[in-house]
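Two proteins were folded this term; both appear here.
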Amino acid sequence: MTIYSLRPQPNAAVPKTAMVMAAGLGKRMRPLTVTRPKPLIDVAGKPLIDHVFDRLSAAGVRRAVVNVHYLADQLEAHLRARVKGIDLQISDERARLMETGGGLVQAREMLGDDPFLCVNSDNLWVDGPSDAIRLLAAQWDDAKMDALLLLVPLARATCHRGQGDFRLDPFGRITERRKPGRLAPFVFTGIQILSPRVIRDWPEGPFSTNLFWNRALDAGRLWGAVHQGLWFDVGSPRAIRETEVALAEL
């Protein structure tokens, strides 16, 4: 049996800073996103972004940089009223949506010089035997990694309609991306640890984090940790219903 594992680092500390990606347009979630940004859509009794901040707080994250664009005033007001115990900073993309890679570039000075968490704001997951964020932290090795992605097996990617994203070697190193017309066994959950050194030599304007991932992959410095709990791809109104039914059965 193939085992995908990394050697946990003793006494590993969770990154104190997180980048929360919250600037997207939420087109797949329409019509619910006509009047509110996707991170404020309720799932299982509270907005998606509240689920994320609850996880960040539980893991010990102290600072969060959140990028905003679509219905930014509404989202920023919610965050300033809701977020307690975490220093909140807003990376303002009201003038121009920068996508994921461009969002990291724009927020670079706020993120500091240490490895940081990067979490999609429309994420919803249930921890397995260990806290997913602490699992990432325990497996982070700055000497050999530029990015460590939390992955879930395609067969356990609830509500996910894609065909997978990555392949891993037995030690957890990501060896390739999904090829056209093929399946890949692991799906990116939207949760990762990044080293600030990946944010370099960027193009002008909006671009995807894929640019940074591909460089890390080519250098052998892109790694994956396999999530042991549940993960939900809450990308559409239909997925909300499926997610809530699944959570109610826990």
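Next, the second protein.
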Amino acid sequence: MSLNTTAVRIKVTLKDVKPEVMRRLVVPVTLRLDRLHLTLQEAFGWTNSHLFEFFAGEVRWGIPDPHNDYGHQPMDARQARLCDIVRETGAKTIHYLYDFGDSWDHVIKLEKWFENTTTEGLPFLLEAAGRCPPEDVGGAPGYAEYLAAISDPGHPEHEQMRLWGPERFDPNVVDRKALEAAVNALSDTWIPRRRATRTK
């Protein structure tokens, strides 16, 4: 990454989940980590209902909590940018942990750097594969059990799980247009459009 680097293409994969749940995006390198969190929430279809952390090596970023009982305080994600992680740790892969109970581990691979490009219209969703698991399903093991139950009418928990989760849940079907629109809306919020100036 050079001083002229303005954006990066990232591939984000939900660890230990089958079928694969993956998103590929282009984001500004100066994106704050709390905003990267919101970007991933929209890109995957999560509901932003739980705590999160980013980590690379031994360093963690999140929202510091004075009542934290986990034994560590993360660095403030609102004060750090994606490029800061790269400069400070040299990481080419970063982890994003969402929901400390279910422990959804998103593996973020920094795939390609872009130099001297505009960041208008970023973040941008390039690719989406696999539907996001339902919230509070019990992490990767619970999700596997959920899929087994809803796909087998003879499963003892089939009816309960079918009614508990989203109607007609198909792990392979993703509403890409809805995810794109949600990610694009963030760009409109964070990067104000230039106002046209009137000439007399």
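The chain has a mean pLDDT of 90. The first helix runs from residue 33 to 44. These notes refer to the second protein only.
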